[in-house]
Every structure is written in structure tokens, then in C-alpha cells.
Amino acid sequence: MPQRNLVSWTALISGFSQNLEFMESVVTFREMVIAGENPNEFAFSSVVKACAALELVKMGEQVHCLALKSGLSDELFVGSNLADMYSKCGLMGEACLVFEEMPWKDEVSWTAMIDGYSKNGDFEEALLAFRKMMSEGNALIDMYSKIGDMESATSVFGTDFGSRDVVSFTSLIDGFVEVEEVEKAVIFFVEMQRHSILPNEFTFSSLIKACANQAALEQGIQLHALAIKYNVAENPFVYSSLVDMYGKCGLFDHSVQVFEEICMPIDIAWNSLLGVFAQHGLGRDAMNIFDRMTKAKVKPNAITFGKILTGCSHAGLVEEGLRYFYSMEKTYGVTPGPAHYSCVIDLLGRAGRLKEAEEFISSMPFEPNAFGWCSFLAACRTHNDIERGKFAAEELLKIEPENSGAHVLLSNIYAKGHQWDGVKRVRRLMKDGNVKKVPGYSWVDVDNKTHVFGADDWSHPRKEDIDKKLDSLLDEILKAGYIPCTDSISLEVEDSVKVKLLHRHSERIAIAFALISMPSGKPIIIKKNIRVCLDCHSAIKFISKVTDRKIIVRDNSRFHHFVDGSCSCGDYW
């Protein structure tokens, strides 16, 4: 080659080293340095490996000095090979110094040290190094998992699952749960059991939390059974997760049953139960739980008040909610945060007290967060206040310019008032800003399989049967007195077209499928990723009446229990 660069020199040095031509690797490295080329970490690690194999400690020390000057001595590969070289040459003191100076250590560098101690007859230090490796490896996995860097966490975890313990497995599982990669969390849970590593209370609480968030009832029940088997079901973190899981899966009674079986529930369990009552719109019951909690000498915290305020908001208990809010700091020493102020905005807005909500916003010690403005905007839509709605949408878009919900809500406000020019303006804004509307999806579990349906785009092996059922349901509920609420469709089209569009909303498709697939006595539990619309709420009440079925719908904010033509929310949500 007429010209040699860093890549070609490094390739040759690495090639000699990998093919056990160690002396050639050392000679080529010297030639590279003489030629004036600055080695990189790969060249350094290859030549150090060669020095270790030849036990050329003096040459290795010179390479070490050069690596120090280059600022590469503590790089992972270079440091690992230097520690390995010194240990193989019997210089454990130098090996330890190199090892301790390394900012990052992987299994290779740890193994080099353990191997060095063992070969030099220092077995106690080898065991201590192994224990430290396990401890620091777990800390790294935990750190990466907590910041959501699951690629790095998995890399540190490695592929030798048998060498890992319950702490490292649980850190990884919890990390995957937090980034909503539940399938990967389950894979590692299965691997954990395959390698006879017993899960602990934190393993179960993480996985049960995942089931709660995805409303995966069958998997949640299986985990409950396993928690009992491993004797951790009575742990505070586990039973609190179970209370939350059953509530979020629609089985409210199961949540209460799990809670009542707890001997001395701690604040986490009380908060979980409060959250269940709040999500199911049972504000009065939430208030009773709050009273029981304080009588049991369990101090309410910021989370407690977030739950109780949400419960009051969903149940229309405005004065009660305000009393809880103003008692937070005065009575319980809990400073209200942005989430609590947003709950009060929601509380007043749902009740139609928009002027009070506006005054409350003006009196706040800080600007409302996105949830606060979104709640105010939704209230403006419900109560047909276009001017306040425009103001709320503008403020929300300042915080979250790509929030499609703000555009959709504002568009619905204009559509409800038949202001089609306003609807067109909002759509133009969305198009110009490349803002996409979040598509609505609903899903239902039938025969241990989750079936997902979208309003605009869905396919299913039983599509023809579902369409027939949807058509027959529409005929039945119209005869029973259902009047379509076409104002929620922000399109300037005939009402008959709007009715057809409404009746193909995802939750109705899921209900139709469940009706033709599930036994008649079994409640139908539907999950939806966005808020159920006013018309679907009305239609599902009629569907529950004409089919004589209990239908439970969980949208992105709460549960609706439809029975015999009525909803548990009392049409207040």
C-alpha cells in the first residue's frame, strides 16, 4: 500500500493478535508509532492483549504509558486488557490500580480481575471481586433502566442469564415496564423462572403494574396466583399493585376484596383504592375511604389528594372537592402542586362553573399545566363556551404545539355551534403544522386473545358478522328511543351520514364483536385509548338495555358501567 492510515494499521495489528501471531502484532504496533500514526483504542487493546500472551510486561508498560498520554488508558477495552495483562504477569497491584481507574466496567474487565486473583492464588480476593461485580453490575442495570436506556441496560445484563440474580432481573423487567415494552419484560420474567431464580415482591409489583396499565386481566390473575405461590401476595407493594390492577381491569369488587384482606394497609394501598373509586366515578365512596384512612392514623400525602380530587370531580362533588383542596396545606401540611390545581380546574369546569374556573386560573401561583388547560378546554366544549374555549386552546398550544387533542376539541366546539368556517380554520392549522389526530382504538379480550378495532381502519376474520350485528343493533336501539347526537361529528355532511359514521366508532365495533363471541351471562369489558364520545355513551346505554348485558367501558380517564339503559356516571363525566 503506497499510503497507510489508522484503519489499515489497526486492521493488521488486530488481525495478527486475533490469529495468535502476537509478536507480529507487537512489531506492527511499533512500526505504526514510528510512522507517526496515533493509535486508537482498538490498536491499543490488541497490542496489550499480545503483550499479555507473550508476558512482555516491560513492553506492556510502555504501551500503557502511551495509552495514558493518548487519554485512552481508562477506555473499556484498553483498561480491561491492561488489567488482564498485569494480572497474567503476576502484578496484581498494578492490575488493581488500572481496574479502579476505569470509569466503566463490564463483565470482561471483572472476569479479567477475578481470573487474575484466582491464578495468583488469592481466592478470597477473587470471591470479593465477584460479589462486587454482581453489586456494581446490578447498579448499572438499575441506573440505565431508570433513565429508560434499555439498550444499555440489556447490554450490561448480558446473555449469561444464569449468572444474574433477582435484583438485576427485576431492574430490567421494571425498566421495560416503564418504557411500555411489556412483552420484553415478560420474556425476561420467563427466563428468570427457567434459570430457577425466584421473583421477589418488586418483580411482581412491576409486572402487575404492567397488567394494570394494559388492562390485561388474565395475565394479572395469573401473576396474582404466582404471588400467592411464592408467598409475596401480602407484601405492601404487591397487594397495592393488585388493588390497582383489578380496578383498572374493571373488576371493582375484586379490588375491594383484595384491600379488605390486608391486615394493616399502608398509604400506598389506601391511595390505590382511592384511585380505583375515583376512576370508577364513585366520589362518595372515595370520601368514605379517605375518612377511614385518616381514622386509621395513615397520613394523606400529595398522591392521596390527587386521587380524592379526581373522585370528587368525576362525581360532581364540587363543594366537597374544594374543601379537600383548601384543607391540604392548612390541615395536613401538604403543599398543592400543579396536578392538584389542574384537578380543581377540572372540578369546576365539569360542573359548568367556567367563570369560577377562569378566576381560579388567574389566582394560581403558577401557570396551569397541559392537563389543566385541556380540562378547561374540554369543559368549554361540553358547555358550548366558544370564546373561553378558543382562549384555552391557544394557551394549551403554547405548551404543547403538537397536541392534536387541543385542535380536535376546538374543532368540536365550532362544529357544535355550526361554525364551519372555524372548523376549516382548525383543520388548516393542523395540516400546516403537520399535526395528526390521534386515532381512536378499542380492544376487548375474548378467549385469551386481545382483539383491537379502529374506527377507520380495521380488519377481522369475522368482519362480515360484526357488520351485520352493528346494523341490527342500530335498528334495535333506534326503536328503543335512541336519538343520535350528530353534533359530535365535525363534518358538514347530511345527518344520515353522520349517524353511520358514529355507529362505526371503535367501541361499538368491539361491543358488537363481544356480543357475537362471548357467553350471554358474562360482562363485556371494553378498553379505549381516548375519551368516549357523547353519542357513543348514549348508544351504549341503549345497547345494554336491548341486549340485557352489562357493558363496562374504560376510556382514557375513567370507567363507565352500563346496565339496563343506565350508566354509573349518571351522565356526568
UniProtKB/TrEMBL annotation:
Pfam families: DYW_deaminase, E_motif, PPR, PPR_2. One of its GO terms (biological process) is RNA modification. Keywords: Repeat. PPR repeats lie at residues 5-39, 106-140, 165-199, 266-300. It comes from the Eukaryota. SUPFAM superfamilies: TPR-like. The keyword Kinase does not apply. InterPro entries: DYW_dom (IPR032867), E_motif (IPR046848), PPR_At4g14850-like_plant (IPR046960), PPR_rpt (IPR002885), TPR-like_helical_dom_sf (IPR011990). Residues 481-573 form the DYW domain. One of its GO terms (molecular function) is RNA binding. Belongs to the PPR family. PCMP-H subfamily. This is Pentatricopeptide repeat-containing protein. It comes from Heracleum sosnowskyi.
